[in-house]
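User: C-alpha cells in, sequence out, please.
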C-alpha cells in the first residue's frame, strides 16, 4: 500500500549521545505557530522590563524553572519565552553528580517538559519535534546568549513571527 505521508528527516546528529556532558540550544514551538505565551503580541518589548506572559506563558516559565530539580546533572543556563516558541540553553554536567548514570537525554528532558505543561494546562499545544544545536565553543555560546537576549526586541523580524 502506497501512502502520501511526508517522511520526516531525522534532525539529530547521527551517533551522538544526547545525554553526554554538553551544552545544548533548544527551540520548542507551539503547533500551528499559535501565539499562546504572551498576553499582547504587539507590545513594545524595548520599553518593558519583563515579558508580557499569558497564563500559559507563566506555566511554561514555572516549568522551565523546575527542570533542574529533577536531575542534579541538568541546568538551564538561559531561556526566553516568545509568543509561540521558546529557546533555552540546557547544560548536562554528569561529573561528580549522584545521578550521573541516570542523566536523561535532551529528548527525554523536552518530552517530560512538554508533557508536564500539557498536563497542567489540560491541552497538548506543542509541535511534535523540537530543534537542537550542540554548542561547541565559547563563541557559539556567546552568540546564542545574545540571540536569546535580543529575540523579544526583534520579535516582528523573527522567522516564527505571526500576528
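Assistant: Sequence out:
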Amino acid at each position: 500500500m502506497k501512502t502520501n505521508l511526508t517522511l520526516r528527516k531525522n534532525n539529530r546528529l547521527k551517533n551522538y549521545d544526547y545525554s553526554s556532558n554538553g551544552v545544548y540550544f533548544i527551540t520548542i514551538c507551539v503547533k500551528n505557530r499559535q501565539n499562546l505565551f504572551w498576553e499582547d503580541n504587539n507590545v513594545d518589548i524595548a520599553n518593558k522590563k519583563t515579558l508580557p506572559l499569558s497564563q500559559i506563558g507563566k506555566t511554561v516559565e514555572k516549568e522551565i524553572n523546575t527542570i533542574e530539580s529533577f536531575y542534579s546533572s541538568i541546568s538551564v543556563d538561559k531561556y526566553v519565552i516568545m509568543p509561540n516558541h521558546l529557546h533555552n540553553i540546557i547544560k548536562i554536567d554528569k561529573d561528580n553528580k549522584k545521578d550521573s548514570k541516570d542523566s536523561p537525554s535532551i529528548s527525554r528532558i523536552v518530552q517530560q517538559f512538554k508533557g508536564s505543561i500539557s498536563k497542567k494546562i489540560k491541552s497538548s499545544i506543542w509541535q511534535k519535534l523540537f530543534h537542537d544545536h550542540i554548542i561547541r565553543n565559547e563563541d557559539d555560546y556567546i552568540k546564542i546568549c545574545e540571540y536569546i537576549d535580543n529575540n523579544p526586541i526583534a520579535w516582528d523580524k523573527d522567522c516564527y513571527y505571526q500576528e
